[in-house]
């Protein structure tokens, strides 16, 4: 059984002391590839160094919406150049909108649109963070796509927590939907309902580590090996075997992020 964790932050200080042990554990459960997200372009070299250490790692570059107040126009060219500089860059992000923790909507939208343009110009997907901002995120994607309907933006709604109606909005826009350990929480009925309507060929799994450890490890540091619990819960919710979920989500990750055999998948 092979698994792909499509969203990690193992460059965070939480992993400074034992990253090799963390790697051993993800290998033990069958995680064959990881996609490392990026919250600021300044992380690029650090994430690149980890990818040099672990050949099963691909990564993204972008600016998180909670850092959108830092956005400067010249960053669009910088992110483009960084993304073009390494074949292991498979996405732009994480970008998106977060109206739960910040109210600078205009700044967030400006940074989001710029990064969507980068992704489309490079023909790679975007990793989208969306918290309390589904309507605005949908509007931005629809607007950007309307400017070039022959080349719509592709990507993933990461750590998805929206309801079934919102889920369908993004499916209709061609997005993949990725579920995290949140889906294992007892009070996650809305998210669990959403997980049941996502077509098999649009389904992804992630940990978003070091955050949001799934049951039975809730409250502890999260790590890529825990993606197996996300797969188990999805299998239960969808009436499938964990092997089916693992196989399908691995294929989906390969398709979305263009992960070839040379990238350890």
Descriptive tags:
265 residues, eight-stranded parallel beta sheet, alpha/beta
Task: Summarize this structure briefly.
This protein is an alpha/beta fold and 265 residues long. It has helices at residues 19-28, 44-53, 74-84, 105-122, 134-147, 164-172, 189-195, 227-238, 242-257, and strands at 3-8, 31-36, 57-61, 89-98, 126-131, 155-157, 176-179, 203-205.
Written overview of the protein:
By secondary structure, this protein is of the alpha/beta class. The chain has helices spanning 19-28, 44-53, 74-84, 105-122, 134-147, 164-172, 189-195, 227-238, 242-257; strands at residues 3-8, 31-36, 57-61, 89-98, 126-131, 155-157, 176-179, 203-205. The chain has an 8-stranded parallel β-sheet with strand order 1-2-3-4-5-6-7-8. The protein is globular and about 45 Å long. The termini are close together. 47% of the residues are buried.
**What's the number of extended β-strand segments?**
8
What is the beta-strand fraction?
Answer: 15-25%
Radius of gyration: 17 Å
The level of helicity is 40-55%
Mean pLDDT: 96
Number of helices: 9
**Main sheet: which strands, in order across?**
1-2-3-4-5-6-7-8
N- and C-termini, Cα separation:
12 Å
Mass-distribution shape: globular
Low-confidence stretches: 261-265
Largest sheet: 8 strands, parallel
**Helix-strand topology string:** EHEHEHEHEHEHEHEHH
Structural class of the secondary elements?
alpha/beta
